[in-house]
Amino acid sequence: MLYAFLPDPSETENFEELALGGETVSYLASVDGVPVHCLDLDDAHRCLRGYRDRGGARDVVLWLGNSQVHSINQMKPGDETAAADLHRRVARHGRYFLTFSQPNANLQEHYLLFQYLLDRVSIKTLVLPVVFDDMRNTGIRNSLADALKAPAVAARLAKTAIGQRLLSDHGDQDAAGNDMAALDDTVQEKSEAWLNARLESLWPLWAQRPTLRGELFLFLYQFRNWALGINPSSIRRMIPGRYALNRQALEATLDLARGRGIHVLLYVVPIRDDVKIPYDLNEYRLFKDDMKRLALAKGARFANLENLVPAQYRGSKAATTVGGGNELDFMHFQAGGHALLAEALYTELQALGWGEGGRDF
After folding, report:
1. Residue 300 is part of which domain span?
2. CB neighbours (10 Å) of residue 345?
3. What is the CATH number for 319?
4. Closest Cα partner for 114 from 293, 245, 250?
5. For 286-327, what is each residue's pLDDT tens digit?
């Protein structure tokens, strides 16, 4: 049964990209052969090495985001994301534009990644999107968890309530999210590592446990959506507890940036508006008002870009239910939408103010 469930390696899903589907491509930008867009700590070394080799001591404009930042609907040869466009534009002002994004990233994850990168690049400006959907997510994914082990990061996190919670909840975990602190350097830890290595060499299915687990969760995700009638147009409601945690993380991020003299551009992401959006409209309005008030209270610039990308640049995505057809894609768009987003963000960056060497963003 397990062998039957295991997909062909050439068709294996990227399980973190469930929201994309076959018509949407994940694209991490490079400019002149230098990676300027990465996902998380697993590939951060590529962008950090590029910054050291080409960026030198230049100040950095850091853009953190979700899959909207690294996805293109119906991609054609020559298409690119806003990250590459903005890197070239900002370079004209003597700054280095660097982008990191993860699917469905929440503000707790942005807070942790911002903390990690603070010690590795000279951040002058932070560009941070706020997404109503992602306020419903919580916790830290495994590909960011190692940031908690950096002494400087842990020390700063310990000074905030949300940081203390992240350290407590995610400090020592295995790939399934289980607490592993008590097993550090024990006979059990070493023997399990040896047994896993031996089993992986003897039985291919053991080595492919992550793929099997991903396939199982994908099936359960699609089955749940089918059973409950959930589709991209279904109304997403606010989850108060998770919203509060993400808001605390955002407030801590803005406080940290302000204390370091880092400019912040906070923006509401573009969303498809030619059909009814899948949010409770009153809750969505309250969310936008709350984000604007918080940004202004913390000295950040705020921009609402929700209506920026028209329907002509929108596409569809693969089914998220069992046996379904293509569905409307509310979050991602084609290259034309990325061009509009790059222009809008560049305009907002310019509006942050003037400095001695040009626009001080």
Report:
1. 2-359
2. 25
3. 3.40.50.1110
4. 250
5. 999 999 999 999 999 999 999 999 989 986 555 444 455 456
